[in-house]
Amino acid sequence: MTASNNSSSTKRIAIFGSTGSIGTQALDVIAAHPDKFCAEILTAQTNHELLISQALQFNPNCVVIGDESKYQKVKEALSGTETKVFAGEKALQEVASFDTYDMMLAAIVGYAGLKPTLAAIEKGKPIALANKETLVVAGEIIMQKALEKRVPILPVDSEHSAIFQCLVGEGRNRIEKIILTASGGPFFGKKPNFLVNVKRDHALQHPNWNMGAKITIDSATLMNKGLEMIEAKWLFNLKPEQIQVVIHPQSIIHSMVQFQDGSIKAQMGLPDMKLPIQYALAFPQRIDNNFPRYDFRKPGTLTFEEPDLRTFRNLALSIDALNKGGNVPCVLNAANEIAVFAFLKNRIGFLDITTVVERAMNKIDFIANPTLEELFESDAEARIFAATLLEL
Ligand code: NAD
Ligand code: MG
Asked: How far is residue 8's CA from residue 4's CA, in Å, rounded to a whole number?
């Protein structure tokens, strides 16, 4: 059992989405550094069994199970401990407003991560941000609020962590552009006549990363890279034309920054999300680990190509959303969440995901400077439109 949480030198981490791919890897990082970190809050949507075993191991102050029908089971399993148990969507926001933690790791997938993250920012809590959808939906509002509250938003997404690491020490030096690398996913080089027959299980096989289902599908459609372009715009205050995507199938260079003098900095390493997670949790420190290292002496070639926007049209739609701004990225995200859900249920084909997103973008009224409420409405409208289209 890992020691409890009270030493004043340990950073108390609230992991929202602790049972997911990012959440579990973050707990590995915490377990490896009990002198530096402890788990203060853990939350999960449905996997109560994993949440219970995490709570028994890490002894957090509280846990939240999103699915209220699982509350009794979690409560009973933790009755002999001091861990408080809450349930339901509202509880996520309430717990995010607690005083008792030092940093939130925002690792919920999708739009569901937005409100708890906003509540944490309101409370002045630093955010280690894995949940890119939060910035896609409401980047302007989130960054404005973070600025107002002097809250750092530390990227966990590997590309954004790479850019962030390249920017350390650069002060006011001007960024000419950033180069976001993309693995290309399992269907790199394929054409629509192949993609039309792609099934769920094939799309879930990512060549370099082992991630949650939604982001794995987004990586296969290149929507993930589109969402990351929008995420980068907000994190690093960039214009759309300063954000370039390049396919780099080996996933060794995690992204690059080109400065005003043309010099390019890259951050490199073997693909392992524990590194950006650890970097965000420990920033500005770097801490030791025993992760495998990249070896330049081993034969291997690093290659780079332009993305195929005509085949992977989700990336083209994302660039369109990035350029238009307003509520368009929010609509893109909402329609994509519904379409990916339907694809994962084998209800629609791979290329239908793009059709649904495009039709939602054409359908929902444009709002140039949406309020948070208007974004919630656009999200709901786009979801209903997409679900109706798909007869879900
Ligand atoms: P995942 O599906 O493995 O885990 C998602 C977590 O969120 C789980 O703990 C789940 O219980 C919780 N959750 C799901 N729906 C919820 C809801 N409606 N309300 C509350 N909680 C809910 O996802 P993941 O791969 O860990 O990704 C998490 C986030 O991190 C995503 O936004 C993703 O884009 C981003 N990200 C992930 C990776 C990766 O390697 N997995 C890399 C970069 C960025
Ligand atoms: Mg990424």
From this structure: 12
- The verdict on the CB of residue 44 being under 6 Å from ligand 1 is yes
Q: Can you tell me the distance from the alpha carbon of 54 to that of 304, in angstroms, rounded to the nearest whole number?
A: 40
* Angle between helix 114-122 and 132-148 (nearest 10): 20
What is the C-alpha to C-alpha distance for residues 99 and 88, in angstroms, rounded to an integer? Answer: 20
User: Is the Cβ atom of 105 under 6 angstroms away from ligand 1?
Assistant: no
DSSP code of residue 305:
B
Domain with CATH 3.40.50.720 in the chain: 11-155
Q: Which residues surround ligand 2, an ion (CB under 5 A)?
A: 157-159
- Measure 106 CA to ligand 2 centroid, in angstroms: 14
Q: How far apart are CA 8 and CA 236, in angstroms?
A: 32
Decide whether any atom of ligand 1 lies within 6 Å of the 131 Cβ: yes
Amino acid identity, position 368: A
103-106 and 11-16 beta bridge pairing: parallel
The full 3-state SS of 24-77, as one line of letters, equals: HHHHHHHHHCCCCEEEEEEEECCCHHHHHHHHHHHCCCEEEECCHHHHHHHHHH
| Mutation probe of ligand 1 site: the residue of 215, 216, 228, 231 with most atoms within 8 A of C-beta | 215
216 CB less than 6 Å from ligand 1? no
11-155 has which CATH code?
A: 3.40.50.720
> What average pLDDT values come out for the chain (392 residues) when binned by 10 residues?
56 98 98 98 98 98 98 98 97 97 98 98 98 98 98 98 98 97 97 96 88 96 98 98 98 98 98 98 96 94 97 98 98 98 97 98 98 98 97 86
Q: Evaluate: CB of 21 within 6 angstroms of ligand 1.
A: yes
Given a contact cutoff of 8 angstroms between Cβ atoms, the answer to whether 129 and 156 are in contact is yes
Distance CA 276, CA 155 (A): 8
In 10 A of CB 84, how many CB atoms?
A: 14
The H or E element that residue 226 is part of is helix 223-236
Pocket-testing residue among 29, 48, 105, 108, ligand 1, by greatest number of atoms within 8 A of Cβ: 108
Which residue's structure tokens are 């990363």?
209
**Model-level pTM greater than 0.85?**
yes
Closest-CA residue, ligand 1 atom 9, reads: 17
- 57 phi, psi to nearest 5 deg: -80, -40
